[in-house]
Design brief:
This protein is mainly α and 442 residues long. It is built from 18 helices and no strands. The chain has one domain: Hydantoin permease (Orthogonal Bundle). The longest helix is centred in the N-terminal third of the chain and has 36 residues.
Length: 442
């Protein structure tokens, strides 16, 4: 597909909503609050905010710039960046990584759909059905995973402006509204004040090297970096876009949602504790970080009677929106490659790639204890940091600095005189790779 016929986001707002939607997912709403609770509360929040702009933001600019420069999928983009070096294999690894992430992500998203639907059927008195939807089983996991993948396919098949952008433009503001409603409600409950204190009043005795490394990793993963989703989205940007500015806007929106998620989840944990649910061990560690969304919070909602069903429905709808806006960006990475490298139509590419991902998800479901944690560790602990490291190295060392400057100038004519340009090239060349190595070896 030639670049002049390439689809683009129709507006900067649409791009920001789509890119933020890609970044805002379980990492923000589940991962960030539990990491914060496990690492001393406010002190982790402070270090995390620093790491978003010291580590994640520079690499986000790099991914967006590579994508917009090449106006193509990750394979062609990396070929264009450095024709002499055979680096397109990095894109292939990223396609494998993002597909594997989506394969287990779809399983978790299916559980969210199950909990959301169960609230409705409980109101109808169908308690057996509600229990089936929230009880772990192969049949339930397969059915709900397929439902979620069909939703993802539906959005991606409609393309960029009419699919991904339109979906994100409607869903992201709704996500924000639901967050605010939930947060205000939780603030009215007994115990919420203790959670707010933990979240907003720093105790620097918790500060450590391990905490800083955890905050770096959370900042990196929360912005969907290291699997080329932002590179693909960057390729759909128009040439007059100011990339540093729009990257900062995406980072700010993503970080704001993570911050609000902390305002919701940490007080909610203390509300649950006030209602008799044990949250922390005697040593102060969070007991249920891996099952917070599916055990602790539902137990809290159950103590609220009928109103708890409504609040629970709002919460799980919020979670479904966050996972859907992330999953569509993940599916778009291999789809964009299939369209351009294999000369396929979008509908065909979406169909066969989704079938492969559904198959992998099904294999994981049938061998859950052996494979689920393995795939999570393989992709998020190893593959993402390695790919992120290479993107930083490519941007800083292999890509001609003058070509980078000329690309950035198309949306920011005076960038050469800016503070950003005086810092970013050296930063992406030296500092970011060091941070990536720290995360990887940690």
């Amino acid at each position: 597909m030639a670049s002049n016929s390439r689809n683009h986001f129709s507006s900067k707002f649409g791009f920001i909503m789509a890119a933020a939607g890609s970044a805002i997912g379980l990492g923000n709403i589940w991962g960030f609050p539990t990491q914060t609770a496990n690492n001393g509360g406010a002190v982790f929040l402070i270090i995390y905010l620093l790491m978003v702009f010291l580590l994640a933001f520079p690499i986000l600019v790099a991914e967006l710039t590579i994508g917009r420069y090449a106006q193509s999928n990750p394979i062609r983009s990396l070929k264009k960046i450095s024709p002499k070096w055979k680096i397109s294999w990095i894109a292939i690894i990223s396609i494998v990584a993002v597909s594997l992430i989506l394969s287990f992500y779809a399983i978790i998203a299916g559980w969210l759909i199950g909990y959301f639907i169960s609230n409705g059927v409980k109101l109808l008195g169908m308690n057996n059905t509600a229990n089936w939807l929230t009880t772990f089983s192969i049949a339930r996991n397969l059915m709900l995973m397929i439902i979620f993948m069909l939703l993802t396919m539906l959005v991606v098949r409609n393309g960029i402006a009419n699919g991904i952008e339109k979906c994100s433009t409607y869903l992201m503001p709704l996500l924000l509204v639901l967050f605010i409603i939930m947060t205000i409600y939780i603030f009215t409950q007994s115990g919420a004040k203790e959670g707010l204190k933990m979240y907003l009043i720093p105790d620097f005795s918790h500060l450590s090297f391990n905490l800083a490394i955890s905050a770096m990793g959370q900042a990196f993963f929360s912005l969907s970096l290291g699997v080329c989703t932002m590179m693909v989205y960057g390729s759909y940007l128009k040439k007059d876009t100011n990339l540093p500015t729009i990257a900062a806007q995406v980072a700010i929106f993503d970080t704001a949602i993570a911050f609000i998620a902390g305002l919701l989840i940490l007080p909610a944990m203390f509300v649950a504790q006030n209602n008799g649910v044990q949250i922390f061990s005697e040593s102060g560690k969070l007991l249920h970080s891996d099952t917070l969304v599916f055990k602790v919070l539902p137990n809290l909602f159950n103590t609220m009677g009928t109103s708890g069903l409504v609040i629970s429905s709002i919460f799980f709808l919020l979670m479904i929106i966050a996972t859907l806006t992330s999953s569509i960006s993940m599916l778009e990475v291999p789809v964009s490659c299939a369209i351009e490298e294999l000369n396929q139509s979008r509908s065909i590419a979406v169909t066969w790639i989704s079938v492969i991902i559904i198959t992998i998800s099904s294999i994981i479901i049938w061998n859950f204890n052996e494979l689920f944690s393995f795939f999570v560790q393989l992709t998020t602990v190893y593959m993402q940091p390695i790919i992120g490291l290479f993107i930083a190295l490519i941007s800083g060392w292999l890509w001609n600095r003058n070509k980078v400057l000329q690309e950035l100038k198309k949306g920011y004519a005076n960038i050469q005189e800016s503070f950003f340009w005086k810092i970013w090239p050296i930063y992406i060349k030296i500092i970011c790779p060091i941070f990536m190595l720290l995360i990887f070896f940690h």
